[in-house]
Design goal:
The protein is mainly α. Helices cover 74% and strands 3% of the residues. It is built from ten helices and three strands. It has a three-stranded mixed β-sheet with strand order 2-1-3.
Length: 310
């Protein structure tokens, strides 16, 4: 693309799931309900953990942090999308787009690291149960969460700054609900080799690394569970990991789907649907997954809302 064809972009058009005017009220209502359920569900978990002294343990401290991240994660994209539908405008400014990319990467990265820390917590709880309180002390938990946030901040800042070097020519329309890094790189008309290199290197290092840690933790957990003689003991040990394992599977499968669907721009809706899964549906389902079979959370929630929970 010749330099003369490059223009300074001031805004993008987010095409969303559908441009059909008749579907907009349905989409607005659906995403508003999912957003409210996500915020309310995760907020209840945070309140339950903070108000019940029995839940002042490492795993619930990490769960409360994860719930906070989920609220922020969905708040980065859904309110803007709802505002666009309500005002019948699909415009987002260039600065707004870069800001959205920054916070999406920030909260997605924080979630990845927190899930890996929670896997380590379960590994210590099952494989080194006698030393659990010594190993998973408040100082270590706070340090792990702090490192997770610092790493995520630096990673998101790197990608956001690298987006500023890209030029956009004629492709102002984004076939998406929000500005996502991989989609925006594909729209650029300048050389994106360095951006792609950094993006996939960070993906392997900062997603693959924690995921490898999760796999290692659960391989040790599975080995320890297999050595338990009683069936009841095996069930009790596995049940403490079932919720976390479900969330990890759901999050990583949908995140992987985003990058697998990216090379197929001729089917833009596929990437949009997968992105909705990991940015909206997964955070919405987590409160249900973590409370469905957790008696401690149910008891704490009962004290807050004054009624039995499921």
């Amino acid at each position: 693309m010749e330099p003369g064809n490059e223009t300074q972009i001031s805004k993008f058009h987010l095409l969303g799931l559908s441009e059909d005017p008749e579907l907009q009220p349905l989409i607005f209502g659906l995403f508003l309900c999912m957003y409210l359920i996500t915020v309310l569900g995760n907020l209840l978990i945070i309140l339950a953990v903070s108000s019940d002294s029995h839940l002042h343990t490492p795993i619930y401290f990490l769960l409360a942090n994860l719930s906070s991240v989920d609220i922020c994660f969905t708040s980065t994209t859904i309110p803007k999308m709802l505002w666009n539908i309500q005002t019948q405008s699909n415009v987002i400014s260039y600065a707004g787009c870069i800001t959205q990319i920054y916070f999406i990467i920030l909260f997605a990265g924080s979630e990845i690291f927190l899930l890996s820390v929670m896997a380590y917590d379960r590994f210590v709880a099952i494989c080194h149960s006698l030393h659990y309180t010594v190993i998973m002390n408040p100082q270590l938990c706070g340090l792990l969460v702090l490192v997770s946030w610092i790493t995520s901040i630096l990673n998101s800042l790197l990608h956001s700054l690298m987006m500023l070097r890209l030029s956009f020519c004629t492709h102002f329309q984004v076939s998406h609900l929000f500005c996502e890094l991989i989609q925006m790189i594909q729209l650029a008309c300048s050389d994106t080799f360095l951006n792609n290199l950094v993006m996939y290197f960070a993906l392997v290092l900062l997603c693959g690394g924690p995921f490898a840690g999760i796999l290692y933790s659960y391989s040790k957990i599975l080995s320890a569970i297999c050595r338990i003689s009683s069936a009841q003991g095996k069930y009790k040990s596995f049940s403490t990991c079932a919720s976390h394992l479900s969330v990890v599977s759901l999050f990583y499968c949908t995140l992987l789907g985003v990058y697998l669907s990216a090379p197929a721009p001729q089917i833009p809706q596929s990437g949009t649907v997968v992105s909705v899964m990991y940015t909206v549906v997964t955070p919405m389902l987590k409160p249900f997954i973590y409370t469905l079979r957790n008696k401690d959370i149910k008891r704490a929630l009962k004290g807050i809302i004054g009624a039995p929970v499921m």
